[in-house]
Amino acid sequence: MRTDLFDFDLPDGLIALRPVHPRDAARLLVVHPGDPDILADKVMADLPLLLEPGDALVFNDTRVIPAALQGVRTRGYATAQISANLIEKLDDHRWNALAKPGKRLEPGDRIQFGKDSNACADGSLTATVEAKGQEGMVTLAFDLSGPALHDAIEAQGAMPLPPYIAARRAPDDQDRTDYQTTFAREEGAVAAPTAGLHFTRKLLQTLDELGVVIYFVTLHVGPGTFLPVRAVDTDDHRMHAEYGEVSTETAFALNAVKSRGNKVVAVGTTSLRLLESASDEFATLKPFHGETDIFITPGYRLRFVDRLLTNFHLPKSTLFMLVSAFSGLETMKLAYGHAISEGYRFYSYGDACLLTPKDPV
User: Which of 141, 172, 238, 325 has most Cβ atoms within 10 angstroms of its Cβ?
Assistant: First the structure.
Protein backbone atom coordinates (compact mmCIF):
# COMPACT_ATOMS: atom_id res chain seq x y z
CA MET A 1 0.00 0.00 0.00
CA ARG A 2 1.09 3.60 -0.57
CA THR A 3 2.45 5.10 2.64
CA ASP A 4 0.77 8.45 1.95
CA LEU A 5 -2.57 6.74 2.67
CA PHE A 6 -1.53 6.77 6.33
CA ASP A 7 -0.76 10.49 6.51
CA PHE A 8 -2.78 13.06 8.47
CA ASP A 9 -2.35 16.57 9.84
CA LEU A 10 -1.89 17.04 13.57
CA PRO A 11 -1.75 20.44 15.30
CA ASP A 12 1.50 20.84 17.24
CA GLY A 13 -0.46 21.84 20.32
CA LEU A 14 -1.85 18.31 20.66
CA ILE A 15 1.59 16.71 21.07
CA ALA A 16 1.85 15.93 24.78
CA LEU A 17 5.13 17.02 26.36
CA ARG A 18 4.24 15.69 29.82
CA PRO A 19 1.81 12.97 30.93
CA VAL A 20 -1.29 13.72 32.96
CA HIS A 21 -1.22 12.88 36.66
CA PRO A 22 -2.46 10.53 37.91
CA ARG A 23 -1.69 8.29 34.94
CA ASP A 24 -5.18 6.80 34.79
CA ALA A 25 -6.72 10.27 34.34
CA ALA A 26 -5.72 10.13 30.66
CA ARG A 27 -8.58 10.15 28.19
CA LEU A 28 -9.62 6.92 26.47
CA LEU A 29 -11.34 6.76 23.09
CA VAL A 30 -13.22 3.47 22.65
CA VAL A 31 -13.50 2.40 19.01
CA HIS A 32 -15.98 -0.24 17.79
CA PRO A 33 -15.83 -0.77 13.99
CA GLY A 34 -19.26 -1.49 12.54
CA ASP A 35 -21.13 -0.30 15.64
CA PRO A 36 -23.64 2.58 15.23
CA ASP A 37 -21.99 4.18 18.25
CA ILE A 38 -18.54 3.59 16.82
CA LEU A 39 -16.76 6.08 19.14
CA ALA A 40 -17.13 6.62 22.88
CA ASP A 41 -15.21 9.11 25.02
CA LYS A 42 -14.01 7.67 28.33
CA VAL A 43 -11.01 7.94 30.67
CA MET A 44 -8.46 5.26 31.54
CA ALA A 45 -10.00 4.80 35.00
CA ASP A 46 -13.11 3.50 33.18
CA LEU A 47 -11.20 0.56 31.69
CA PRO A 48 -12.38 -2.03 34.28
CA LEU A 49 -15.97 -1.33 33.22
CA LEU A 50 -15.11 -2.01 29.58
CA LEU A 51 -13.79 -5.52 30.21
CA GLU A 52 -15.35 -8.76 31.41
CA PRO A 53 -14.26 -10.96 34.32
CA GLY A 54 -11.86 -13.53 32.92
CA ASP A 55 -10.54 -11.26 30.18
CA ALA A 56 -6.75 -10.96 30.08
CA LEU A 57 -4.59 -7.85 29.82
CA VAL A 58 -1.13 -8.57 28.40
CA PHE A 59 1.56 -6.04 29.36
CA ASN A 60 5.09 -5.56 28.10
CA ASP A 61 7.32 -5.52 31.18
CA THR A 62 10.45 -4.24 29.45
CA ARG A 63 12.39 -1.56 31.34
CA VAL A 64 13.75 1.54 29.60
CA ILE A 65 17.42 2.29 30.13
CA PRO A 66 18.57 5.96 30.32
CA ALA A 67 20.07 5.68 26.84
CA ALA A 68 20.37 9.39 25.94
CA LEU A 69 23.95 10.61 26.44
CA GLN A 70 25.61 14.01 26.03
CA GLY A 71 29.33 14.29 25.42
CA VAL A 72 32.31 15.99 23.87
CA ARG A 73 34.17 14.58 20.88
CA THR A 74 37.91 15.07 20.74
CA ARG A 75 40.05 14.72 17.63
CA GLY A 76 43.53 16.02 18.25
CA TYR A 77 43.00 19.48 19.71
CA ALA A 78 39.53 19.93 18.14
CA THR A 79 36.35 19.32 20.15
CA ALA A 80 32.62 19.22 19.37
CA GLN A 81 29.43 18.70 21.37
CA ILE A 82 27.77 15.36 20.59
CA SER A 83 24.55 13.65 21.65
CA ALA A 84 24.06 9.92 21.28
CA ASN A 85 21.09 7.62 21.85
CA LEU A 86 22.09 4.03 22.53
CA ILE A 87 19.88 1.72 20.48
CA GLU A 88 21.41 -1.77 20.43
CA LYS A 89 23.78 -3.56 22.80
CA LEU A 90 26.34 -5.61 20.85
CA ASP A 91 28.38 -7.10 23.70
CA ASP A 92 29.63 -6.19 27.19
CA HIS A 93 31.26 -2.92 26.07
CA ARG A 94 29.93 -2.00 22.58
CA TRP A 95 26.68 -0.34 21.54
CA ASN A 96 25.18 0.87 18.30
CA ALA A 97 23.95 4.44 18.72
CA LEU A 98 22.33 7.27 16.82
CA ALA A 99 24.59 10.31 17.10
CA LYS A 100 23.88 13.99 16.42
CA PRO A 101 25.45 15.64 14.57
CA GLY A 102 26.71 12.44 12.99
CA LYS A 103 28.77 14.33 10.43
CA ARG A 104 31.14 15.42 13.21
CA LEU A 105 32.17 11.84 13.97
CA GLU A 106 34.69 9.55 12.29
CA PRO A 107 36.11 6.15 13.26
CA GLY A 108 38.81 6.59 15.88
CA ASP A 109 37.23 9.68 17.48
CA ARG A 110 37.02 9.73 21.27
CA ILE A 111 33.86 10.89 23.05
CA GLN A 112 33.76 11.82 26.72
CA PHE A 113 30.20 11.44 28.03
CA GLY A 114 29.09 12.90 31.33
CA LYS A 115 28.84 16.09 33.27
CA ASP A 116 32.58 16.76 33.34
CA SER A 117 35.81 15.31 32.03
CA ASN A 118 36.80 13.42 35.19
CA ALA A 119 35.60 10.07 33.82
CA CYS A 120 37.33 7.60 36.08
CA ALA A 121 36.58 9.47 39.26
CA ASP A 122 32.86 10.11 38.95
CA GLY A 123 31.52 7.18 36.96
CA SER A 124 31.12 9.01 33.66
CA LEU A 125 32.33 7.21 30.57
CA THR A 126 34.46 7.46 27.48
CA ALA A 127 34.00 5.69 24.15
CA THR A 128 35.80 5.31 20.85
CA VAL A 129 33.89 5.53 17.58
CA GLU A 130 34.57 2.08 16.16
CA ALA A 131 32.49 2.36 12.98
CA LYS A 132 30.20 4.82 11.22
CA GLY A 133 27.06 4.02 9.22
CA GLN A 134 24.33 6.02 7.54
CA GLU A 135 21.95 8.59 9.03
CA GLY A 136 24.00 9.12 12.20
CA MET A 137 24.48 5.47 13.10
CA VAL A 138 27.76 4.74 14.90
CA THR A 139 29.26 1.86 16.84
CA LEU A 140 30.69 2.95 20.18
CA ALA A 141 33.32 0.91 22.04
CA PHE A 142 33.29 2.02 25.68
CA ASP A 143 36.33 1.91 27.95
CA LEU A 144 34.16 0.39 30.67
CA SER A 145 32.40 -2.96 30.33
CA GLY A 146 29.87 -5.17 32.08
CA PRO A 147 28.34 -3.92 35.36
CA ALA A 148 30.68 -0.91 35.47
CA LEU A 149 29.40 0.27 32.08
CA HIS A 150 25.81 -0.35 33.13
CA ASP A 151 26.26 1.76 36.27
CA ALA A 152 27.94 4.58 34.34
CA ILE A 153 25.10 4.70 31.79
CA GLU A 154 22.58 4.79 34.64
CA ALA A 155 24.49 7.66 36.25
CA GLN A 156 25.16 9.76 33.14
CA GLY A 157 22.27 8.93 30.81
CA ALA A 158 18.83 10.50 30.51
CA MET A 159 15.58 8.96 29.37
CA PRO A 160 15.56 8.63 25.55
CA LEU A 161 12.50 10.75 24.87
CA PRO A 162 11.10 10.55 21.33
CA PRO A 163 12.29 13.29 18.95
CA TYR A 164 8.93 15.08 18.95
CA ILE A 165 9.37 15.68 22.71
CA ALA A 166 13.14 16.03 22.86
CA ALA A 167 13.04 18.75 20.18
CA ARG A 168 10.83 20.85 22.46
CA ARG A 169 12.42 20.25 25.87
CA ALA A 170 15.31 18.39 27.44
CA PRO A 171 14.71 15.19 29.42
CA ASP A 172 14.87 15.64 33.19
CA ASP A 173 14.66 13.63 36.39
CA GLN A 174 10.86 13.57 36.25
CA ASP A 175 11.07 11.58 33.02
CA ARG A 176 12.86 8.77 34.85
CA THR A 177 9.50 8.12 36.51
CA ASP A 178 7.11 9.31 33.83
CA TYR A 179 8.74 7.39 30.96
CA GLN A 180 8.74 4.08 32.83
CA THR A 181 5.77 1.79 33.49
CA THR A 182 4.95 0.95 37.09
CA PHE A 183 5.61 -2.75 36.34
CA ALA A 184 8.86 -2.41 34.35
CA ARG A 185 11.39 -5.09 35.33
CA GLU A 186 13.25 -6.60 32.32
CA GLU A 187 15.91 -4.07 31.37
CA GLY A 188 16.69 -3.55 27.70
CA ALA A 189 14.35 -1.09 25.97
CA VAL A 190 15.47 2.22 24.47
CA ALA A 191 11.87 3.42 24.06
CA ALA A 192 8.92 2.96 26.39
CA PRO A 193 5.93 0.68 25.73
CA THR A 194 3.80 3.77 26.08
CA ALA A 195 0.31 2.25 26.44
CA GLY A 196 1.50 0.77 29.73
CA LEU A 197 2.32 4.24 31.06
CA HIS A 198 -1.39 4.83 31.79
CA PHE A 199 -1.62 2.18 34.52
CA THR A 200 -1.42 3.05 38.20
CA ARG A 201 -1.17 0.52 41.01
CA LYS A 202 -4.73 1.49 41.99
CA LEU A 203 -6.05 0.76 38.48
CA LEU A 204 -4.23 -2.58 38.40
CA GLN A 205 -5.73 -3.47 41.79
CA THR A 206 -9.24 -2.56 40.60
CA LEU A 207 -8.83 -4.73 37.51
CA ASP A 208 -7.70 -7.63 39.67
CA GLU A 209 -10.63 -7.23 42.07
CA LEU A 210 -13.07 -7.35 39.14
CA GLY A 211 -11.60 -10.58 37.82
CA VAL A 212 -9.53 -9.27 34.92
CA VAL A 213 -6.34 -11.34 34.78
CA ILE A 214 -2.95 -9.84 34.03
CA TYR A 215 0.00 -11.41 32.24
CA PHE A 216 3.41 -10.14 31.17
CA VAL A 217 5.51 -10.64 28.08
CA THR A 218 8.78 -8.91 27.23
CA LEU A 219 9.68 -7.07 24.03
CA HIS A 220 12.70 -4.78 24.23
CA VAL A 221 11.48 -1.79 22.28
CA GLY A 222 13.85 -0.18 19.79
CA PRO A 223 13.53 3.22 18.13
CA GLY A 224 12.69 1.79 14.71
CA THR A 225 9.13 0.98 15.81
CA PHE A 226 8.27 4.67 16.10
CA LEU A 227 10.05 6.14 13.07
CA PRO A 228 8.10 7.38 10.04
CA VAL A 229 8.23 5.09 7.03
CA ARG A 230 10.29 6.72 4.27
CA ALA A 231 9.46 4.17 1.57
CA VAL A 232 6.78 5.12 -0.94
CA ASP A 233 5.18 1.68 -0.60
CA THR A 234 4.82 -0.37 2.58
CA ASP A 235 6.25 -3.42 0.77
CA ASP A 236 9.61 -1.64 0.60
CA HIS A 237 9.90 -0.94 4.34
CA ARG A 238 11.83 -3.26 6.65
CA MET A 239 11.23 -3.28 10.39
CA HIS A 240 14.07 -3.24 12.92
CA ALA A 241 14.24 -6.60 14.70
CA GLU A 242 13.49 -6.55 18.44
CA TYR A 243 14.06 -9.26 21.03
CA GLY A 244 11.05 -10.71 22.80
CA GLU A 245 10.01 -13.48 25.16
CA VAL A 246 6.74 -15.28 25.89
CA SER A 247 7.15 -17.87 28.64
CA THR A 248 5.68 -21.36 28.46
CA GLU A 249 3.48 -20.58 31.47
CA THR A 250 2.13 -17.38 29.91
CA ALA A 251 1.43 -19.07 26.57
CA PHE A 252 -0.47 -21.88 28.32
CA ALA A 253 -2.51 -19.43 30.43
CA LEU A 254 -3.45 -17.17 27.51
CA ASN A 255 -4.51 -20.13 25.38
CA ALA A 256 -6.81 -21.10 28.26
CA VAL A 257 -8.28 -17.57 28.27
CA LYS A 258 -9.16 -17.96 24.60
CA SER A 259 -10.51 -21.48 25.10
CA ARG A 260 -13.05 -20.34 27.69
CA GLY A 261 -14.33 -17.56 25.43
CA ASN A 262 -12.71 -14.56 27.09
CA LYS A 263 -10.79 -11.79 25.34
CA VAL A 264 -7.03 -11.28 25.16
CA VAL A 265 -6.34 -7.54 25.30
CA ALA A 266 -2.86 -6.45 24.22
CA VAL A 267 -1.63 -3.39 26.12
CA GLY A 268 0.37 -1.64 23.44
CA THR A 269 1.45 -2.42 19.92
CA THR A 270 4.63 -4.06 21.25
CA SER A 271 2.61 -6.67 23.16
CA LEU A 272 0.41 -7.24 20.12
CA ARG A 273 3.35 -7.68 17.75
CA LEU A 274 4.97 -10.20 20.08
CA LEU A 275 1.76 -12.19 20.62
CA GLU A 276 1.08 -12.32 16.90
CA SER A 277 4.69 -13.36 16.25
CA ALA A 278 4.35 -16.19 18.78
CA SER A 279 1.02 -17.48 17.43
CA ASP A 280 0.74 -20.24 14.85
CA GLU A 281 -1.69 -20.61 11.95
CA PHE A 282 -4.15 -22.38 14.25
CA ALA A 283 -4.35 -19.34 16.59
CA THR A 284 -2.38 -21.13 19.30
CA LEU A 285 0.15 -19.12 21.28
CA LYS A 286 3.57 -20.78 21.54
CA PRO A 287 6.50 -20.03 23.87
CA PHE A 288 8.79 -17.54 22.15
CA HIS A 289 12.39 -16.49 22.72
CA GLY A 290 14.01 -14.56 19.90
CA GLU A 291 13.77 -11.62 17.56
CA THR A 292 10.73 -10.44 15.64
CA ASP A 293 10.51 -7.96 12.78
CA ILE A 294 6.81 -8.51 12.09
CA PHE A 295 5.29 -5.61 10.11
CA ILE A 296 1.51 -5.48 10.42
CA THR A 297 -0.32 -3.53 7.71
CA PRO A 298 -3.88 -3.64 6.30
CA GLY A 299 -4.53 -7.07 4.87
CA TYR A 300 -2.89 -8.84 7.81
CA ARG A 301 -5.16 -11.48 9.36
CA LEU A 302 -5.11 -11.42 13.16
CA ARG A 303 -4.24 -14.71 14.81
CA PHE A 304 -4.57 -14.18 18.55
CA VAL A 305 -5.28 -10.70 19.94
CA ASP A 306 -8.93 -9.73 20.48
CA ARG A 307 -8.60 -6.08 21.54
CA LEU A 308 -5.82 -3.48 21.63
CA LEU A 309 -5.14 -0.64 24.04
CA THR A 310 -2.74 1.84 22.50
CA ASN A 311 -1.78 5.51 22.29
CA PHE A 312 -2.30 7.84 19.31
CA HIS A 313 0.52 7.46 16.81
CA LEU A 314 2.57 9.45 14.30
CA PRO A 315 1.41 9.94 10.70
CA LYS A 316 2.91 7.42 8.25
CA SER A 317 4.39 5.40 11.12
CA THR A 318 4.40 1.62 11.33
CA LEU A 319 2.21 1.97 14.43
CA PHE A 320 -0.56 3.88 12.64
CA MET A 321 -0.37 1.23 9.92
CA LEU A 322 -0.77 -1.45 12.59
CA VAL A 323 -3.88 0.09 14.15
CA SER A 324 -5.30 0.59 10.65
CA ALA A 325 -4.78 -3.12 10.02
CA PHE A 326 -6.45 -3.89 13.34
CA SER A 327 -9.61 -1.76 13.11
CA GLY A 328 -9.60 -0.61 9.48
CA LEU A 329 -7.99 2.41 7.85
CA GLU A 330 -11.22 4.36 7.41
CA THR A 331 -12.25 3.63 10.99
CA MET A 332 -8.92 4.86 12.33
CA LYS A 333 -9.01 8.01 10.21
CA LEU A 334 -12.46 8.68 11.64
CA ALA A 335 -11.22 7.98 15.18
CA TYR A 336 -8.15 10.19 14.80
CA GLY A 337 -10.24 12.98 13.27
CA HIS A 338 -12.54 12.80 16.30
CA ALA A 339 -9.58 12.78 18.69
CA ILE A 340 -8.08 15.85 17.03
CA SER A 341 -11.36 17.77 17.06
CA GLU A 342 -11.94 16.88 20.73
CA GLY A 343 -8.44 17.87 21.81
CA TYR A 344 -7.04 14.47 22.73
CA ARG A 345 -3.33 14.48 23.56
CA PHE A 346 -1.12 12.56 21.12
CA TYR A 347 1.96 10.32 21.15
CA SER A 348 4.01 8.82 23.97
CA TYR A 349 2.79 11.03 26.82
CA GLY A 350 -0.68 11.41 25.35
CA ASP A 351 -4.08 9.76 25.68
CA ALA A 352 -5.15 6.25 24.67
CA CYS A 353 -7.68 4.35 22.60
CA LEU A 354 -9.24 0.91 23.08
CA LEU A 355 -9.72 -0.81 19.74
CA THR A 356 -11.87 -3.70 18.59
CA PRO A 357 -10.74 -5.46 15.41
CA LYS A 358 -12.49 -5.01 12.09
CA ASP A 359 -12.29 -8.77 11.57
CA PRO A 360 -12.44 -10.52 14.98
CA VAL A 361 -10.16 -13.50 15.57
Answer: 325
